[in-house]
Amino acid sequence: MHIFHNPVHGKHDGRQEMFRGRLVPCHETPARLEYVLDALRQRGIGTLQAPAAPDLDLIRRVHSPRYVDFLQGAWADWIALDPANAELDILPSVWPVRGFRHDISPSNFAARVGLFSFDSGSPLTAGTWEAAAAGAACAIDAARAVSSGHGPRAAMALTRPPGHHAGADFFGGYCFLNNAALAAQALREAGAERVAVLDIDYHHGNGTQSIFYERGDVLTVSVHGDPTTEYPFFLGYADEPGQGAGLGANLNLPLAAGTDFAGWTEALEQGLAAIGRFKPDALVIALGVDTYEGDPISKFKLRSADYLQVGARLARLGLPTVFTMEGGYAVAEVGTNVANVLEGYAG
Ligand code: OKS
Ligand code: ZN
């Protein structure tokens, strides 16, 4: 398996996120990826390669150009406000909720940050753009790698920051560019007529869903903690079937907090059945391992050995497959669990 890893992921290194009235240390840390890299190297899984330069045109076909411009320039704008800001991260604090205008372009920096985000848990730092763009390049290159050969092939975009919460024009949930959506779009443009995205992170992939909600060429399926109690709360319910040309091309499978591997597997099988009916030419797996029983911010009960079976089950689809790295915060076990998925997949 080709593994595109992001050599500059560590440049995205948030200091703090807002949680219950306090600033607390970020869960989404550079160490997460280093554990995965160590586990893969130790077990000799895959060949690691760095990505080429990011295809900014493709990124601008998935994300709105004005959002990409904002992300690219945000840090310079922040420093321009006050050079002392270099010691601080950018954290959103004001949002245009119901009744506000979305068709305006405020020049105030806090207003622009709010226009392009949805929570105060996702610090934007000096190196966020560089890391996110290189991560997007990993996803695009992984898609192109599985498109170029004959028969089923698989590649992984082993990157952070993660991507599945990022929408066409907003960041949040630690995500800035939607790597899974970029992989799906790259697969389409490389010739796959129909692409399925299966999101098995603990959290609903709201960004991916919203990007493809009105498209019939990309099926989005997500198995996740019930948003009634779990982040991102405002999307990810069972009654979101897609719209317009995309009607019938979105499937949400929310599960109660506390769900174990048996219950989770039942939902996975429903998702796989929908993917089978869709008859995709290629597959993207948004792979979060925050479904692990020891995850500090999530509430499913998967065990490390279960991930071997998950990988084996996904391989049985026999489709060209791109994995993107999403959540997982039991830092020391993230490496074991991701490596188990890939080992199970390789068989
Ligand atoms: C509230 C908690 C934010 C949870 C973000 C979830 C990130 C994730 N401050 N998404 O898949 O793992
Ligand atoms: Zn997650």
TrEMBL record:
Its cofactor is Zn(2+). Its EC number is 3.5.1.-. It is an enzyme of class 3 (hydrolase). One of its GO terms (molecular function) is metal ion binding. The keyword Metal-binding applies. Residues 28-343 form the Histone deacetylase domain. Keywords: Hydrolase, Metal-binding, Zinc. GO terms for biological process: epigenetic regulation of gene expression. Belongs to the histone deacetylase family. This is Acetylpolyamine amidohydrolase 2.
